[in-house]
User: What shape does this take?
Amino acid sequence: NANVTEHIERVRDAFDGILSAAKNYQSDMIVVGIYEEPGQEEKAEAVERLIQMLLKRAPCEVVIGRPKTQS
Assistant: This one.
């Protein structure tokens, strides 16, 4: 059984906000959902940097989910 907590917080920096929430909630896992949108390369690069920082510095497991592509 897993306890899932949804948390929304306004912060200037997503990385700091996610880490702060993970520490405050003593999280065992951070789940990040991503998807690609045509023409949104700049946003994709920012999300990629965020995920890389989370994978390196998060105090818990980081799971990244991507929706299945339709064939």
About this structure: The radius of gyration is 13 Å.
